[in-house]
Amino acid sequence: MLRLKTFGGLSLTRDGAPVEGAGAQRRRLALLALLAAAGERGLPREKILGLLWPESDLERARKSLAQAVYALRRELGSEDLIVGVNELRLGWEELTSDLAEFRAALGADQPAEAVAHYVGPFLDGVYIDEAPEFERWAATERAALAHDYVVAVERLAREADRNGEHRAAVGWWRRLANADPLNGKVALGLMLALRATGDRGGALQHYRVYEMLLSQELDLAPDRALTQLAEELRRSSGAPGDTAVPAAPAAPAAPEVGMSTVPGTPAAVRPLVSPQPSVPAARSRPISQERIGISGKTDEYARPRPLGEPLYPTPAPAADAAGPAPIRKPFLSRKSTRYGILLGFGLGLLVTGVATMRVMVSRDANEEVPVVAVGLIQDYTRAREGLTRPLADMLATNLARAEGVQVISTARMYELLAQQADGSDSMAAIMGAARAAGATELLDGSLIDSGGIYQLDLRRTRLASGSLGSAFRVSGKDLFALVEAGTSRLVGSLGVKGPTGSFAEVTTGSLLAYRLYEEGLRSLFAGQGETGERLLRDALVEDSTFAMAAYWLARARRTDLELLNRALRLSDRATDRERLIIRAGWADLTDDPSRLASAESLTTRYPAEPEGYVWLGHAQKWTGDFAAAVVSLQRVMAMDSLSLSLDPRSPTAPVRCLACEAVTELAGAYHMMDSLGAAERVLRDWIRRSPNNPSAWSTLAGILSFDNQFDSALAAARTVSALSPQVSQEWFKTHVSWRAGKYAVPDSIFRAMGESPITWGEGLKWLSISLRTQGRVQEALAPAQKLRATMKAPRKDAVPYLGLFEAQVWFDLGNPRRAAAIFDSISRAPLFQVAPQIARNLVWTQTLRATALAAAGDTALLQRIADSVEVWGRGNSYGRDRRLHHHVRGLLLAARGDLEGSAAQFRQAIFSPTGGYTRTNLELGRVLLRLGRPREAASLAESALRGAFESTGTYATQTEMAELAAAAWDAAGTRDSALLRYRQVASNWAHADPAFGPRVERARLRIAALSGQ
Questions:
Q1: Which of 182, 701, 877, 1007 could form a disulfide with 716 if both were Cys (CB 3.0 to 4.6 A apart)?
Q2: Is the preceding peptide bond at 275 cis, omega within 30 degrees of 0?
């Protein structure tokens, strides 16, 4: 029997086993979900086409739907699975669905049974590429079903209260409190139920937590009923002093397996890696901890498991009443921070000769969507009240809510105004900025006061001709009334549909908060970071529900994740554009699986905002769609081309250069595509446009070093130091020497760094990698162990993350079981508090563990590890993580002697030939040599050697990769290339441990043989 699961994700099973093949494809599963939601009434074909294939022409969409229906019927073995002609519906004799059973239970007045079916939000984490309408449909259905769930749980809670089943009532109220932690009615119900069970302390504890959350999130005090109940509980418990200073809430206990602390979702049913499909409940259970240095075994591993069951449950975010620790990642970086000579060896690209784009989205065949920029509003009020700047932003924000018009955001206008020659906000500068933004019309005006009533004169100017489009006057008692009236007149003159609802409801009802917010935003883009941060903080104090104030304050603080999470929680109270901006920024920072979909939605709905394309290109790059990333980031540079020619050292240079950010991402994409020549060409063109830009020179230095053009790389680095004397060349020179195989000087520098309290981490890490590259693995153990010991372990039974380097040394020393145990212990450490990053840590450390187990000849766990890695990989947006389960499967097939199958799996595991897990390059190359395909093996090895240091240094050393390349070129009969790599091997391992002796001797013999030819 087929069963469709829609709560907590989307999957299809047959008799309990996952369906594979055509029936498991995401868009076809989405079709089944649509029909399941439609029920007996079915769904018209046209509706399905609009939801699943909105980007295709009608004929192609119809063919796609027909093919999907045919494939599902054929793959699932039933012609009656989908029935109907014009309206499609499911054949319920062939399939069951948790959604249908949930609705049936509600209809039969069986709330307990309905709640049992609701194991997570509807289609949680499910999105379809190029189908934003499906995403919106799913969100609407998700909200409606969540409401039904909450109503059912509340009914069960109240029935339990009435029946005197107070402990059961506590359980139901807790579910509601986890679903809506800021709901005062729910908090009161839970406290009363706890009091009824005699747990006054628990009731007071919940009050304290609720009081704290309400203060932090909404800056409000609890309702009077709650406060009175808390006072009664304190008096009855004999703790009157508790009323003066409420005790800090105790740290919440770690969530049970299968539970979550994510607000807004029932804790007992939330999938653990949100918002992707979760591990089935049967798989989510505690596991015993493997302790390093004891037995190397656990009872958990010895217990038989069902076939295909992941080894570990998916993780829940760590519970922390104070919120997650901030993650620091610059959004609005100052100019000086962009000049680091390595730049983390993230790289940049310039797209040449691209003119500024105008955003013209067709409404029909003959009509273009107007693109409006809001300029200066003159202040003619008697007191010069300083209202016109916030008024301009309010107009831009509210007008952007209308359908059929694109509006340039105030933040974008401030960016472009900073690029103007005089840096002023004169009319000429504003018109120049508006044209650069792609606007077709400019809106400006004047404000006067008349007997307590404000009057606003507005006029539209056509930027192409400079002619006046229309002019009108509106009046109102305050700015909010002016904005509503002005927007109404504007949408009428533009011939578009106006926004619905109140403007204040989706921004702030406080004029003071808005004034502080606008001034803070303006200060940020003027380079006055501290002032901007203070003003934004004051705006948030004035109105704690102001989402965009929280968002920009998070960015002003170099991306404070706690604040960004707050902005995300408030984003439902923001306008559609601002909600998408917040969600896209948050998803980009946290590697959330929604990152690509959020960026696509932002660029589709608001194509005039180049930042959306920065996020889109970033998402495409890190999901592995490098070619698409190039297109998206080229568009950023077309939209922000002027900033590429500006001298960043100038006092009037803009604080932020979006095109420069896009350059970094684009060249990184070229590098990950192993196209260093393309990256070098565009970087040299950037330098031609901006010859005094240290950032351009430093990224070029990095590209040249990857390509082994060491002299040119050092020359570029000297140029950086000449342009920015505060930037030292020493670190770059150290790495160039290291890549060139000259280890003596780098090793001495690494040792000195390892003794410094400031640089010890980097020094010990690089010393360990360098010694391993030279085959001096016994020596590499000491710095690796010191590195692990210097970092505090997160808990007694876990190894700190930097233990990865020690584990890799043990692997190279021929003790892979010990390495596997360390990798496994790191995977269990509570290192992260954001679900996608928890998932990333699990994917990575368990893949390393699998590699070590395979080297030990222990393949018993590889299948289950692969299944777990596949599930976790879907819990974040990093394309490498979504592929690494293929690496584990490749190891398993290689151990079984299935070389062709192993090669196919390893190929699917490669995210980037230069920037992925280059151990895959090594393993695949060895398999290809055994299959007699040496040129393919050589290509893989050479690509890995052009990767970043960590890629080819930590998990497969450069010497190992050179050894593979040498053997492959030798087998292919390419003498010169083989000689080059054999010499690199012999040189690098000249002072290696005795265990490397036979490999060094073989390299020397081949050098002699090939040299004599």
A1: 701
A2: yes
CA 772/CA 996 separation, integer angstroms: 11
Q: Within a 10 A sphere around the Cβ of 226, how many other Cβ atoms?
A: 20
SS3 category, 13: strand
Task: Please tell me the predicted confidence (pLDDT) of residue 786.
Answer: 92
Q: What does the DSSP assignment read for 530-555?
A: HHHHHHHHHHHHH-TT-HHHHHHHHH
> What secondary structure, in 3-state letters, does 817-839 show?
HHHHHHHHHHHHCCCCCCHHHHH
- Predicted confidence at residue 528, as pLDDT, reads 86
- Taking alpha carbons only, the member of 126, 24, 120, 119 closest to residue 874 is 126
Distance CA 755, CA 738 (A): 20
Task: pLDDT band for 361, please (50, 70, 90 cuts).
Answer: very low
Sign of CA dihedral 151, 153, 154, 155: positive
For 710-753, what is each residue's pLDDT tens digit? 999 999 999 998 888 887 778 888 888 888 899 999 999 999 99
- Residue 133 is part of which domain span? 2-146
Residues 6 or more apart in contact with residue 815 via CB below 8 angstroms: none
Under 8 Å CB-to-CB from 584, ≥6 apart: which residues? 595, 598, 599, 601, 602, 612, 615
Name the pairing type of β-strands 406-407 and 468-476. unpaired
Q: How far apart are CA 551 and CA 143, in angstroms?
A: 24
SS3 460: strand
Chain centroid, CA 571 distance in Å: 17
How many other CB atoms sit within 10 Å of the CB of residue 732? 25
Q: Are 294 and 822 in contact (CB under 8 A)?
A: no
For 521, the token pair is 């935003």
Please check whether residue 227 lies inside any domain of the structure. no
For residue 576, the tally of other CB atoms under 10 A from its CB is 15
Which distant-in-sequence residues (6+ apart) come within 8 Å of 878 by Cβ? 591, 622, 623, 840
- Structure-token pair, residue 418: 């900073």
Question: Does residue 567 lie within any of the structural domains?
Answer: no
For residue 55, what are its two tokens?
């980007």
Show Cβ contacts of residue 626 under 8 Å, excluding neighbours closer than 6 positions. Answer: 620, 669, 670, 672, 673, 912
Distance (Å, rounded) from C-alpha 69 to C-alpha 668? 40
Mark which of 694, 725, 756 sits at the end of a domain: 725
Confirm if 327 and 559 have CB atoms less than 8 A apart: yes
**Residue 762 maps to a domain:** no
| Total tally of structural domains belonging to the chain | 2
Separation between Cα atoms, residue 986 and residue 988, nearest integer Å: 6
Integer Cα distance of 399 and 873 in angstroms: 40
The CATH number for 693's domain is: 1.25.40.10
441-450/371-379 β-pairing: parallel
| Angle value at C-alpha 433, between 415 and 597, nearest 5 degrees | 55
Q: Tell me which amino acid residue 624 is.
A: G
Q: Against a cut of 0.70, is the pTM above it?
A: no
Beta-sheet pairing, 43-44 with 87-90: antiparallel
Question: Are the C-beta atoms of residues 921 and 956 closer than 8 Å to each other?
Answer: yes
With CA atoms as reference, report the closest residue to 351 among 706, 671, 630.
630
